[in-house]
Specification:
The chain is an alpha/beta fold. The chain has six helices and five strands, in the order E-H-E-H-E-H-E-H-E-H-H. About 45% of the residues lie in helices and about 15% in strands. Strands 3-2-1-4-5 form a five-stranded parallel sheet, with helices on both faces.
């Protein structure tokens, strides 16, 4: 019986920490579904379609990884994908409290759904998509935190923002 795990998140942008967790999850499970949440309430930098496209480019050639977009309850996504395992990343102690609540709530709604927590390698333990976006907005170098594909797409967004500002100043 093959085991399928779902790794849900916004992935805006997908970081080297996310990539590390996916690759390590592939060693534990037969299939890893990178489930990218629409998360419109978070006002993402990239559209859902762009995040899916970037992720597909990054994991191109890895047949164990499936990339999908979703909105709605995670337990419904798990049921729809015949998955009973959720992968969640824990960077710092504060993450644990929130993830513990989520795991218990998901288990209450779907008792067969197990959460598996993975910690990042040390060099990515403080990397978050939010911090990467903030550093990028202030002109900082984020190349050590994101894949070159994500970096290139972030630069395109930055360029488009500059064009937008110029157009609206005139």
């Amino acid at each position: 019986m093959s085991q399928k795990a779902i790794y849900p998140g916004t992935f805006d942008p997908i970081t080297k920490g996310h990539i590390d967790l996916v690759e390590r999850a592939c060693k534990l499970f037969d299939k890893v579904v990178l489930a990218i949440a629409a998360s419109e309430a978070k006002s993402p930098l990239f559209t859902l379609e762009e995040r899916i496209d970037i992720s597909k480019k990054i994991f191109k050639g890895n047949d164990q990884v499936e990339i999908i977009g979703f909105s709605g309850l995670l337990v419904d996504l798990a049921k729809d994908n015949d998955a009973t395992i959720l992968i969640r990343g824990l960077r710092v102690v504060a993450d644990f409290e929130y993830e513990f609540q989520l795991a218990n709530m998901n288990r209450a709604m779907m008792p067969e759904l197990e959460s598996v927590f993975l910690t990042p390698v040390t060099e990515y333990s403080l990397v978050s998509s939010s911090l990467v976006k903030e550093i990028c907005k202030m002109g900082g170098d984020v190349s050590s935190f994101v894949d070159p594909i994500s970096l290139e797409e972030m630069k395109k967004k930055e360029f488009m923002l500059i064009i937008y500002i110029i157009k609206h100043m005139v």
